[in-house]
Amino acid sequence: MTDNTQKGRILLALTGWSPDFWLDGFGKAAPDRPVTLEPDGEADPSIHYAVVWKQPPGLLSKLPNLKAIFSLGAGVDHVFNDPDLPEVPIVRVVSPDLTTRMSEYVAWQVLDHHRLGPRYRAQQVERVWHEDREQRAAADITVGIMGLGELGSDAAAKLRVLGFQVSGWARTQKQLDGVTCYAGADGLSPFLASADIFVVLLPLTPETRNILNRDLFARMSKRGPLGAPVLINAGRGGLQNEADILAALDEGLLSAVTLDVFQQEPLAPNSPFWSHPKVTITPHAAAASVPSSLIGPMVAQMDAHDRGEKLINLVDRKAGY
Length: 321
Ligand code: NDP
Ligand code: OXD
Prior knowledge:
Elements: E1 9-14, H1 20-29, E2 35-37, E3 47-53, E4 68-71, H2 77-80, E5 90-91, H3 96-114, H4 117-126, E6 142-146, H5 150-161, E7 165-170, E8 179-183, H6 184-192, E9 197-200, H7 214-219, E10 230-233, H8 242-251, E11 256-259, E12 279-281, H9 291-306
Parallel strand pairs: 1-2, 1-3, 3-4, 4-5, 6-7, 6-9, 7-8, 9-10, 10-11, 11-12
Helix pairs in contact: 1-9, 3-5
Bound molecules: NADPH dihydro-nicotinamide-adenine-dinucleotide phosphate and oxalic acid (OXD).
């Protein structure tokens, strides 16, 4: 199929993102596939593929010839927020570029807490020179990763290279070199007792919503070298109970947190997180979806699907991720 008119059209629905780079990128990578920017494409029978970030609810169900939905994120909770989601395959982002970015972020934040970054930045503001003579070794710290999928398993391997002990928790049992793996409800308590710094890379599903709550923090180990544990959430804001995080910091159930994601994004200017001395905030910036690394593989999948080949990186609709 080389004729312009024969290849299905792509619908781009990008809530809150600037479409320019994506339009340009698809124009270059798939000159034979016209692209429509939502909402002009509503009900257009020539649209075969939708590429979405937080598509407006109901938009996709109007497309009579939609063959597949491509999520512009690794997480797909934003796709499932649509009560009229059509029953077509959903492809999510699995990309070495995104994985590398996330592992950089995890290593950065784990090292920052391990090497007392928040304390030294506060001292600098106060012009205080206070030397810590005792430095912990990475090998004395266990990092516990919640979610051992594409992102969690890569972060685990990189933290091992940095010398940390690593444990992890997933829905199903994993075997990862040098990582103590726990699974399911039965594995949660021993996992929570195993680590000093917790990194959350879970998807947001009905099962994981609100999982980061007071009860979970109370079950985390307090016996490690950091005293109370550190929490780093780069998964989704819906995983966390934000009032419980603030209370846990104040009560000493958690010693510090890094949050990349929030229940409401952007974070409201009056949120108490902004000025809390034990909170590090990044603006949903852990691992960006970058047009230059994602568009080529997406177009290749569309072409392969048109030839009758199977799509890859499909979402399990029942599991929700
Ligand atoms: P994957 O689907 O590859 O991995 C998800 C992991 O979570 C799997 O190990 C899975 O277990 C585990 N899991 C799911 N449900 C449960 C549960 N109920 N109990 C225990 N474990 C569970 O996803 P990715 O690694 O690609 O991405 C993870 C998440 O990271 C995304 O869903 C997204 O929300 C977030 N993300 C955030 C970004 C940011 O910039 N902040 C950027 C990219 C992603 P199992 O292996 O047994 O299936
Ligand atoms: C993602 C994200 O899910 O950017 O990829 O949050």
